[in-house]
Inverse folding.
């Protein structure tokens, strides 16, 4: 049974539609990644999943029951916003706040020390510091400790590593995964850190202009597009190459083309001879192992646009093994491109 | 210039010798300002919070009215309260004219807009993430309200302090509604006005000094609270 069930969700600010999701499910104990450009509705979706706000329309069910803000069962869900807010108190009191409102005062000190240690902060050194005596990374880690101390059923992370240094980012990533390992916490992470999401997420969802576009490792290419023949459109990539696709998108300026990672073919030289495939040239920027399937995912940037290709085990790409930085050709069937 | 230095010296003598008239005025001032501030804070903080935190139809008009009332002259408030509590007024039967309670009503009208407006301004400047954070940490509606108020405590303290300063130093309401009756409704400010008129600068200085001391005590207490 899914832990979260979202149905016909609509949300708007000042009558401007922000989010429209027909259906979404999140399994208990899973890690879900939310990706999408700024303004795509990731933060709004997290606020609704965190029951901080009530959706304009639609329903969010938690453990099978419809839930709204301030319902008692909401306390198993906690959200870490992108910009953390620390109460104007000491670090210790900040981490203690959630336990105090739950009247869980037994072993308070030990729980707080454990939570601070989870995020790499020495309780002796940081416990009595005031909220304004912390760096940005330390403040973010204290905010995370304030959530971890609650042993949450669901931890919603809104770009948790976007504005912190590399060391803090690493500690935040480790602590989040530790929560899942120790308490089977369901994680929903909005992030631009593709590599991290690919490594840890069971599911990745794409959001664009408030709509769930695709799930998995699909590559999205945003408009503007221009006509390039009967039923064919193209986009000129920043390096001058033309990316062509079949279809009749309604609005060429705003259309989004979705490429499935299984539909790509990689080659270290452009194949010659007649072919129904289109090819663009790029360079391999990243190789990662897809969680679950354990298959290799190759990210090839063509004119700065990243394309993720899922590789078959033992797949050959010419004579050379794949090495980041290597020039590659990406082939795809223009008929298989989906449009939003 | 001699009369000024003589006045200040005489002020210390009156204070240190425990002059009963001086201390009667001080007691009346503390009593009446405490009453008016208690009511102003009890009504003004929740009203200011609602005005700054929530959205409702007519909010802009309410804000405009509160801001306008910040500039109410004390003599006008004195006149208004006098009209209400005099024997011909609608509250005449309550016998509030020439009493400390009557003055306190006027001072509440003076202080309330200050508390509301400055509390609302402090709440409006509150970080948007505070609400998200508190709900995310499991706060219910009551905790949300109380913690939010605590987070803007410095702004609310400033609102109370500003209102207290205005109440302590006003003359118009105390004079018109209280009548400046010796031993009863004579406050520090009305006594200063009276003694200065009679040429008794020493008593005026002594009372002025007391006002400064009270202001200092309140400010020191507030700065101590701010550190907490």
């Amino acid at each position: 049974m899914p832990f979260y069930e979202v149905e016909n969700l609509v949300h708007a600010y000042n009558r401007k539609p922000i989010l429209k999701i027909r259906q979404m499910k999140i399994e208990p104990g899973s890690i879900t990644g939310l990706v999408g450009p700024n303004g795509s509705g990731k933060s709004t979706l997290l606020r609704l999943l965190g029951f901080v706000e009530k959706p304009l329309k639609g329903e969010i069910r938690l453990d099978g029951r419809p839930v709204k803000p301030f319902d008692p069962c909401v306390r198993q869900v906690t959200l870490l916003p992108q910009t953390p807010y620390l109460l104007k108190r000491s670090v210790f009191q900040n981490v203690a706040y959630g336990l105090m409102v739950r009247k869980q005062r037994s072993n308070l000190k030990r729980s707080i020390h454990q939570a601070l240690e989870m995020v790499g902060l020495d309780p002796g050194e940081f416990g009595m510091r005031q909220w304004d005596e912390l760096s940005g990374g330390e403040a973010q880690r204290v905010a995370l400790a304030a959530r971890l101390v609650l042993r949450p059923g669901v931890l919603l992370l809104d770009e948790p590593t976007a504005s912190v240094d590399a060391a803090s980012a690493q500690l935040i990533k480790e602590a989040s995964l530790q929560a899942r390992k120790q308490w089977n916490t369901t994680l929903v992470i909005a992030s631009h850190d593709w590599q991290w999401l690919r490594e840890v997420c069971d599911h990745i969802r794409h959001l664009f202009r408030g709509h769930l576009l695709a799930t998995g490792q699909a590559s999205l290419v945003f408009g503007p597009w221009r006509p390039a023949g009967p039923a064919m459109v193209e986009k000129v990539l920043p390096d001058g190459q033309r990316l062509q696709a079949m279809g009749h998108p309604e609005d060429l300026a705003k259309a989004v083309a979705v490429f499935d990672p299984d539909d790509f073919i990689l080659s270290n030289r452009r194949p010659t001879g007649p072919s129904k495939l289109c090819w663009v040239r790029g360079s391999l920027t990243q190789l990662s192992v897809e969680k679950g399937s354990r298959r290799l995912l190759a990210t090839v940037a063509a004119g700065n646009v990243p394309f993720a290709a899922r590789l078959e085990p033992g797949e050959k790409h010419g004579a050379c093994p794949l090495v980041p930085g290597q020039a590659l050709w990406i082939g795809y069937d223009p008929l298989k491109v989906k449009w939003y | 210039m001699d009369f000024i230095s003589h006045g200040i010296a005489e002020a210390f003598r009156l204070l240190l010798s425990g002059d009963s008239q001086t201390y009667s005025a001080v007691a009346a001032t503390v009593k009446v300002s405490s009453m008016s501030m208690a009511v102003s804070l009890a009504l003004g903080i929740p009203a200011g919070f609602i005005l700054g935190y929530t959205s409702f139809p007519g909010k802009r008009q309410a804000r405009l009215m509160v801001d306008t009332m910040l500039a109410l002259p004390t003599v006008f408030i004195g006149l208004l309260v006098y009209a209400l509590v005099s024997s011909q007024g609608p509250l005449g039967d309550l016998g509030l004219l020439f009493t400390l309670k009557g003055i306190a009503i006027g001072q509440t009208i003076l202080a309330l807009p200050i508390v509301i407006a400055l509390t609302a301004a402090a709440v409006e400047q509150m970080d948007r993430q505070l609400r998200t954070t508190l709900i995310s940490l499991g706060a219910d509606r009551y905790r949300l309200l109380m913690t939010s108020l605590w987070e803007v405590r410095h702004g609310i303290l400033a609102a109370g302090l500003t209102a207290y300063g205005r109440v302590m130093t006003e003359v118009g309401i105390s004079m018109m509604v209280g009548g400046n009756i010796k031993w009863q409704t004579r406050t520090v400010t009305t006594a200063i006005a009276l003694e200065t008129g009679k040429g008794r600068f020493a008593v005026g200085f002594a009372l002025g000094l007391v006002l400064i001391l009270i202001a200092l005590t309140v400010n020191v207490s507030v700065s101590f609270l701010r550190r907490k």
Summary: The domain at 4-208 of chain A is CATH 3.40.50.300 (Rossmann fold). The CA atoms of residues 137 and 165 of chain A lie 6 Å apart.
